[in-house]
Automatic annotation (TrEMBL):
<keyword id="KW-0547">Nucleotide-binding</keyword>
<dbReference type="GO" id="GO:0030729">
    <property type="term" value="F:acetoacetate-CoA ligase activity"/>
</dbReference>
<dbReference type="Pfam" id="PF00501">
    <property type="entry name" value="AMP-binding"/>
</dbReference>
<dbReference type="InterPro" id="IPR042099">
    <property type="entry name" value="ANL_N_sf"/>
</dbReference>
<keyword id="KW-0436">Ligase</keyword>
<dbReference type="InterPro" id="IPR045851">
    <property type="entry name" value="AMP-bd_C_sf"/>
</dbReference>
<dbReference type="InterPro" id="IPR000873">
    <property type="entry name" value="AMP-dep_synth/lig_dom"/>
</dbReference>
<keyword id="KW-0067">ATP-binding</keyword>
<protein>
    <submittedName>
        <fullName>Acetoacetyl-CoA synthetase</fullName>
    </submittedName>
</protein>
<feature type="domain" description="AMP-dependent synthetase/ligase">
    <location>
        <begin position="105"/>
        <end position="478"/>
    </location>
</feature>
<dbReference type="Pfam" id="PF16177">
    <property type="entry name" value="ACAS_N"/>
</dbReference>
<dbReference type="GO" id="GO:0005524">
    <property type="term" value="F:ATP binding"/>
</dbReference>
<dbReference type="GO" id="GO:0006629">
    <property type="term" value="P:lipid metabolic process"/>
</dbReference>
<dbReference type="InterPro" id="IPR032387">
    <property type="entry name" value="ACAS_N"/>
</dbReference>
<dbReference type="InterPro" id="IPR020845">
    <property type="entry name" value="AMP-binding_CS"/>
</dbReference>
<dbReference type="InterPro" id="IPR005914">
    <property type="entry name" value="Acac_CoA_synth"/>
</dbReference>
<feature type="domain" description="Acetyl-coenzyme A synthetase N-terminal">
    <location>
        <begin position="40"/>
        <end position="94"/>
    </location>
</feature>
Length: 661
């Protein structure tokens, strides 16, 4: 792609730049450190060439409190195994309350919340910083009474509600290790995760509401109780029922009855904070352990500098508790921002729901998965006609590459003077490799910048950096938020195999990336599902961008089947608008669009209409599982249905594979 062809969508004004935290940080570097940078790219270059010095400035600029000073910043550049800020003793929850002032001003909300039953009445609920502090102190005290100590695991089967945030920060204050699953996951999928970590306490809801329907989960909770022998206490939060059922349950309300001062356990920088999980669609989910200190540093840098969040912001990112963006949203509190939580179906009763929620909460930052914005485009939603969105300064997108059409739609329909924070990172690092920069121009289809302190490059197969060419996303120096380890991973075998098997000593993430001449980035999809037609490699997102630009096509999936001893075969599967059929005219239009936008080599062999594309719970297209299925792998070996958003979608592909075997 010709980089100069990308459309300039936004340039921050001099006034806006002067008010950003990034600008203030650069001024601070000049004043306090004698470091002057002409632009962001030169700052990024310094941040990766002087890794220790950079991360120390983040610590100092954000005034991280430590009961004991660190003795060194980084012991080695070796990955994995680098140790950061040894000697420091800190607590994530204590950092949260740097913004707490016990006076009248502290009635400002820390959390604003809405669930589906509130939509019809247009109601929201809020919790002040003062009340949040009280509840965290009370829940932490109750957990201590249950015997929870530092290092114990607390498992949460909870939706995206304020109680989940309270419970998480209560655990962090003790030094307990948090792990959550969304209640839309069934018991086999949840057990695949929680059984690996032996939790001492389970906190769960009895059900949830989604799309106007109630889903009772009490039987799942009882199965979890019976199947997790390590669980000594189960705390139940009633959502669908008014009273506790019979059985060994404590009520959530009983945890809130303690009027006690808050306590913060001093912890080493690398003390585990939470365990998050890979998707689990192709095998047992990887239990990924992140540290208190690494998460704190990345949240302050990523949210504070890259996304320009602060005390004045109201931060919404639509997510479930099973996606890393929930973790990202709750750490927005570390910058003093108010977080705006929505629990329910973003398309219920219509696709305007989240935009109306943003207006009601006066959100300044609105984030969602790229698939959500694509659905808004296809549905013809015009957000500014639905709600007053004048307070929105930034829009966030992640989960999959956002198309150029999606970029332009946001500026046309949401606001012309906003920062589009298109980011790409992952559960693996609980951070962004590439993302937004509030002092740089923004171009259609291009992520603005490489994140400070992260030495990310596009690499060829020999490990040589590529300039303005597509290559593997590789990180060559350690990051504070890299996983400490995988839980119960003897000898770090799964960890090493997951990221360090291709480029020993360097992190390979499994994405195709191009670093543009401006220093931005374009993500082309997963490198393990690359289309390699007649010697020309291309990320699948390029094909999706072309195909889904057609108004008739709602969704699509393409796989390149390279059969041993047979010619490559590439089918394309499309979801069409209701009432449409895949006739010869539409097939021709799809092929012509691909040929024009990409090349004749990337025109599929055949095109098939399907009712839905298989997706993970976090919304990712399941390209590799479908490819394996069509290559002959049994269906029970390629996907865990409980880790899917739409497991029924696999039926078509199973029949398709059988018919062609």
């Amino acid at each position: 792609m010709n980089d100069s062809s990308l459309k300039l969508l936004w340039t921050p004004s001099a006034e806006r730049i002067s008010k950003t935290r990034m600008h203030d940080y650069m001024q601070w570097l000049q004043k306090d450190k004698g470091l002057q940078f002409s632009d962001y790219n030169s700052l990024w270059q310094w941040s990766v060439e002087h890794l220790e010095e950079f991360w120390e400035t983040v610590w100092q600029y954000f005034d991280i409190h430590s009961t004991q000073p660190y003795t060194r910043i980084l012991d080695t550049h070796k990955m994995p195994g680098a140790r950061w800020f040894e000697g420091a003793q800190l607590n994530l929850t204590e950092q949260l309350f740097r913004f707490h002032r016990d006076d009248a001003e502290e009635q400002r909300p820390a959390i604003i919340f809405q669930s589906e039953p509130d939509i019809a009445e247009g109601k929201t609920h809020s919790i002040s910083w003062k009340e949040m502090r009280r509840q965290i102190a009370s829940v932490a005290h109750a957990l201590r009474q249950m015997g929870v100590q530092r290092g114990d695991r607390v498992a949460a089967y909870l939706p995206n509600i304020p109680e989940t945030v309270i419970a998480f920060y209560a655990c962090a204050s003790i030094g307990a290790i948090w792990s959550s699953c969304s209640p839309d996951m069934g018991s086999p999928s949840v057990l695949d995760r929680f059984a690996q970590i032996n939790p001492k306490v389970l906190i769960a809801v009895d059900g949830y509401r989604y799309g106007g329907k109630n889903f009772d989960r009490l039987s799942v909770v009882e199965t979890l109780q019976q199947s997790l022998p390590s669980v000594e206490h189960t705390i139940l939060l009633p959502v669908l029922h008014t009273a506790l059922p019979a059985g060994n349950f404590a009520s959530w309300d009983s945890l809130l009855q303690h009027e006690v001062p808050i306590q913060f356990e001093p912890l080493p920088f690398d003390h585990p904070l939470w365990i998050v999980y890979s998707s689990g669609t192709t095998g047992m989910p990887k239990p990924i352990v992140h540290s208190q200190g690494g998460t704190l540093l990345e949240a302050l840098k990523g949210h504070g500098l890259q996304m320009d969040l602060g005390e004045q912001d109201r931060f919404h990112w639509f997510s479930t508790t099973g996606w890393i963006m929930w973790n990202s949203q709750v750490t927005g509190l570390l910058l003093g921002a108010t977080i705006c939580l929505f629990d329910g179906n973003p398309g219920y009763p219509d696709m305007g729901t989240l935009w109306k929620f943003a207006a009601q909460t006066q959100a300044t930052f609105f984030g969602a998965g790229a698939a959500y914005f694509a659905n808004c485009v296809k549905a013809g939603i015009e957000p500014r006609k639905l709600a007053n969105l004048d307070r929105i300064r930034s829009v966030g997108s992640t989960g999959s590459p956002l198309s150029e059409e999606g970029f332009e739609w946001i500026y046309q329909q949401v606001g012309s003077d906003i920062m589009l924070a298109s980011i790409s990172g992952g559960t693996d690092i609980a951070a962004s490799f590439v993302g937004s920069c509030p002092i740089m121009p923004l171009y259609s289809g291009e992520i603005q910048s490489r994140s400070l302190g992260i030495a990310v490059y596009a690499m060829d197969e020999q490990g040589k950096p590529l300039h303005d060419e597509v290559g593997e996303l590789v990180v060559t120096k350690p990051m504070p938020s890299m996983p400490l380890f995988f839980w119960n991973d003897a000898g770090n075998r799964r960890y090493l195999d997951s990221y360090f098997d291709v480029y020993p000593g360097w992190w390979r993430h499994g994405d195709w990336i191009r670093i543009t001449p401006r220093g931005g980035a374009v993500i082309y999809g997963r490198s393990d599902t690359t289309i390699n037609r007649h010697g020309i490699r291309m990320g699948t997102s390029e094909i999706y961008r072309a195909v889904e630009s057609l108004p008739e096509v709602l969704d699509s999936l393409v796989v390149d089947l390279e059969y041993l001893g047979r010619e490559s075969y590439m089918p394309l599967f499309v979801v069409l608008r209701a009432g449409l059929q895949l006739n010869e005219e539409l097939v021709t239009a799809i092929k012509t669009t691909i040929r024009t936008a990409l090349s004749s080599r990337h025109v599929p062999n055949e095109i098939f209409a399907v009712t839905e594309i298989p997706r993970t719970l976090s919304g990712k297209k399941m390209e590799l599982p479908v490819k394996k299925l069509l290559m002959g792998t049994p269906i029970d070996k390629i996907a865990n249905r409980d880790a899917m958003a739409n497991p029924g979608s696999l039926g078509y592909f199973e029949k398709f594979a059988a018919a062609r075997s």
